[in-house]
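S.,

Sequence below, as promised.
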Amino acid sequence: MVLYTSPFPNGFLSALHSFSWGLIFPCYWLGDRLVASFVPTTYEKRQRADDPCYFHALCIFITTPIYLALLVVSLPFAIIGFLLWSPLQSARRPYVYSRLQDKGQINGSTLLTEWKAASNGKSFCFGSANVCLLPDSLARFNNVFNTQTRAKEVGRRIRNGASRPQIKIYIDSPTNTSISAASFSSLVSPQTGDSNNRAVSAGIKRTTSMEYKGDNSGSNNSEESKDAKVGGETNEGEDGNTCIVRIGGEDNGHISDPEVDGTGGQMNSRGPADRSPESEAESLKGQTPNHKQKEGDSGSLDSYTASRESLVKARAGDGTVDQSTVNSKLLYKASLMKKTSVRKKKNTDEAFDHEISAFFPANLDFLCLQEVFDKRAAEKLKEQLHHYFEYVLYDVGVYSCHGCCTFKFVNSGLLFASRYPVMDAAYHCYPNGKGTDSLASKGALFLKVQVGSTPQDQRIVGYISCTHLQALAGDTTVRCEQLDLLQDWLSDFRKSTSSSSTANPEELVAFDVLCGDLNFDNCSSDDKLEQQHSLFTRYKDPCRLGPGEDKSWAIGTLLDPEGLYDEEICTPDNLQKTMESEDGRKRYLVFPTSKTHGSSQKGRKAALKGNGRRIDYMLYTEEGLYLEWKVEVEEFSFITQLAGLTDHLPVAMRLMVSTGEEDP
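The prediction came back faster than expected:
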């Protein structure tokens, strides 16, 4: 299948479309700014409360007539442009495929060779997030603003989080409670107040980051990392390239490194004095006022405050160890794992590890985003993501009346990014959208990716589906119909793109993952039909016990928009700490609705079970995969790195694909 690298089949149509949009854009922009000036966010309201001169009111009084006059002048040109633009959409392709051509980065073809090196299998990491990148006037109804700047910052945070080095920290002693569940700085500095209040339960694996400055590179591999180890021996079942730190009870919560301890050295990380004013200014560049870094903000790894929880300090007597030596030891290579059956699970209450993390997972392989509606924002986001992901599909959907029953003003808002080559892609628009949702071409994006090859040169592939369902409350029937369509389309996509037969398999399917914003949760009484849908008999939800009941550690992913700029949740660190607290979740998450309780938010939160409305899903299935392989969840994360940028919590899942081959 040919992937579409441009929205139109020839240059003439592209030029005509650009001309028509050029006529429409001034009217569109003026209307957007006019509406936005009358829809303030809570952040702006707080700023204006401190303005005794009513400067903003004066600005609105002056600019409104100007906007209206220019809007009237631009309207005739917009009408002409619309008459040209609308019929062109019948020739428009359903997505734009972008591949980074920078040879300096590690590319997908290189990643494909890793499967052969990992004879027992490999792990893959998936992420999903609703980023609320609507036109600014519409985004303000969700209490977020400055869409263009947010798009750039969202991309920067995602690729910095995904490209950071990774270490795995295990607690060996059940009596050692000096390790903070939220921050690595607490782990290595138990004297801080936080570490005394927020202890990790014994046996839970913590994934955190070393000090890392985003280098705009998608490569997490280097020749130097091949022999990198921390703490001497690696854990049974762990790859030698994975950085492991073990905390023993006798160490009182300090990191133990035989080489450092043997020299009686001490590792010291870079402090504020090591950062130049220029680099500090660069870390804040491009952020909107409400996204400036505060103490404890780990959302952007370019800033000093971001490294507060990722500094490594180990006291072992007098003397120092050269920092370059420490850094070389902590380099991380791609997460090639040995098969799950021989890995020693460190989590005693679950078959896999789970956490609330201030960072996107290191070595994120696939990313699915929703609500990337604004075209200019999508371009900025794509440019940032290309620093890490080689393949991106964006501007997914249809416009005008093409392919759908009602007129579509905006696209589906779906965006997909991958480190692995995309082989096939297909998009379908839901025909039954209602209300304001019918103005967007919400639908489903289906992708087939190649993730490796066998020694016999058989392709190893995976399937990923991304969707965004009807949002309006009470539209249960609509969402169930969309779930039915989703399953049918997915089955058709698998059949149409398969080049294998049972007798002669040319391709081996490693995984099948479905993710997105489904706009219903597993605890609301109003969502019972969706909770019992047949989709959940085929696909597994790692956070779910059954219809109407989530696992105790699962939390909601929908934040209360009114509190987005409160100090408790406006930075990734603060949001992480708040989400780890039951009181914090009750205060800042939207909770399930109930017919038996009033509409009061506080009343619902006090009365209903659960930890908030979890409407962002990450599902997987074992059906249709290669029979001799086994797929298991290795990690599941709720992510706070986009604090202040969206009203959703991103989710991530790492799957281990085990081939069943025994170790030599």
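The mean pLDDT is 75.

Coffee later?
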